[in-house]
Amino acid sequence: MSATVTPEVLWAQRSSLADPEKNFIYLTINVPDVPSSNIKLDLTPTGLSFSGHSDSLKKTYAVDLEFYAEIDPDASRVNHTPRDVEMKLIKKELKEEYWPRLLKESKRMHFLKTDFDKWVDEDEQHEALEDEFSQFGGGGGMGGDFGGIDFSKLGGGAGLPTGLGEEEEEEDSDDDDMPALEGEEDEAASKPAADAAPQADEGKEVA
């Protein structure tokens, strides 16, 4: 019987007050040797459920995420590679500020890490946008970029486990390499400047 594990999830983001294509989340689920035919993905405005099985590694990967704010699934795009599933999730609300974290809850998640290859500070993001994530191309829905996965058969995330990793979220606190965006206590202490940019030194990002 194959083991079920929570895959490593990497993320970064960009924001824009005017252009939806520049207002998005980079999300990568590291699931090596999982063919498209063994993937189930349910992407909604508020989160996603994912599962995938690797025959060669004899592992089943599964994870559920509830996002900090809503995204637009129809405008988002997904790319499947032999190593991972990469997503460009368009944020629903156009906003100049970054999300303070990826997930709705502020608890630490051992599997969630910052994608340092794609991360840039909020005040430097506009210089970094032009040549990024070219594999997603311009426009088109998720289905066309997902390496042959038939989204019409993925519906509703049936059979996808929920709450994976929750039992470990409290005990894992070693994500010291997260960039400085997380920390609600620092947000609260930042005065009522709700629209101010997230503090660059708030603490380590873990969602």
TrEMBL record:
GO cellular component, one term: nucleus
Domain CS: 4-103
UniProt cross-references to PROSITE patterns, sorted A to Z: CS
Region entry Disordered, spans: 147-207
Acidic residues: bias regions: 165-187
Alphabetized Gene3D superfamilies for the sequence: 2.60.40.790
Biological process annotations from GO: chaperone-mediated protein complex assembly; protein folding
Protein family membership: Belongs to the p23/wos2 family.
UniProt protein name: HSP20-like chaperone
Species this protein is from: Podospora fimiseda
